[in-house]
Structure to design on (307 residues):
């Protein structure tokens, strides 16, 4: 079949005024199966086909969305006189397949969606498991930063306001707390109100077993979690320090800053994780504050390194 061909329709819709039916699509021509037809709407062919398939949603040649019922009628007229039943069935099957390709719905099957959901759940689980240690380390870091900031805030307030501020570390409440307040009873005009800072629930002031025998800056032996009170007359064990207007740390609880320089160390860690331990030291003479972290020394032991 080449070019455009006209074939004799059945007597039901045959009309002299009807133009010839043009066969299109090279692939359809090659298969010998008509698929697209041109027919003016004012032709008797169009009107007869409309009458046979109904005037509802069915469409004929020339309209978009060609319906299978129209194609089936056209093919009936084409092969009704000369086609054998086998050829007729082949035509019908080919037409239905070709017509269905244009209207096939796109999307995902239920199995494909379940596979994607399963993969997302697996990846989310892996990410969460790997993220847990990071979150634990971050909470220790937050506790360390909170303690360091509280001590520096108290010192800065003492210097700028020319008075004494105290910092008290509490291990008897959960979560552990840090209290910064003016030393003078009742405070004074312009003084900062008492502020209480809390550590994360899984982080405490803790001196764990296995710490190096030499504490940071030489304060104690790493046995007490809060170990201030290293003065000319005492050897640690205090949990409160006092910052004075000159920036120094002292042991004078009256607020007069007439006492002794007071130094010491506080340890911060997550229980059961020795390498999470951090430390903060205070040298009373100048009020210098340092941060420390414990690391493996490569020989089966541990050592303190300044942050």
């Amino acid at each position: 079949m080449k070019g455009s061909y006209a074939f004799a329709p059945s007597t039901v819709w045959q009309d002299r005024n009807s133009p010839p039916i043009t066969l299109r699509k090279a692939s359809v021509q090659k298969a010998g199966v008509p698929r697209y037809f041109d027919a003016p709407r004012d032709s008797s062919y169009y009107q007869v086909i409309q009458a046979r398939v109904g005037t509802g949603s069915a469409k004929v040649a020339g309209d978009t969305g060609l319906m299978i019922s129209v194609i089936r009628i056209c093919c009936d007229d084409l092969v009704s006189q000369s086609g054998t039943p086998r050829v007729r069935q082949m035509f019908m099957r080919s037409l239905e397949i070709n017509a269905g390709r244009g209207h096939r719905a796109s999307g995902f099957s239920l199995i494909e969606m379940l596979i994607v959901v399963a993969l997302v759940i697996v990846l989310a689980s892996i990410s969460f498991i790997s993220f847990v240690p990071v979150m634990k380390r971050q909470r220790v870091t937050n506790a360390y930063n909170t303690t360091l900031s509280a001590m520096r805030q108290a010192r800065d307030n003492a210097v700028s306001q020319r008075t004494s501020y105290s910092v008290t570390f509490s291990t008897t409440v959960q979560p552990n707390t840090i209290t910064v307040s003016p030393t003078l009873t009742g405070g004074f005009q312009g003084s900062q109100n008492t502020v209480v800072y809390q550590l994360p629930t899984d982080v405490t002031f803790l001196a764990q077993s296995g710490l190096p025998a030499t504490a940071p800056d030489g304060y104690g032996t790493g046995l007490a979690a809060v170990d201030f009170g290293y003065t000319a007359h005492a050897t640690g064990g205090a949990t409160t320090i006092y910052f004075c207007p000159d920036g120094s740390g002292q042991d004078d609880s009256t607020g007069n800053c007439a006492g002794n320089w007071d130094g010491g160390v506080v340890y911060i860690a997550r229980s059961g994780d020795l390498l999470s331990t951090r430390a903060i030291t205070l040298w009373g003479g100048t009020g210098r504050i340092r941060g420390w972290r414990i690391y493996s020394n490569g020989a089966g032991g541990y050592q303190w390194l300044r942050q």
In short: Residues 26-101 form one domain. The mean pLDDT is 78.
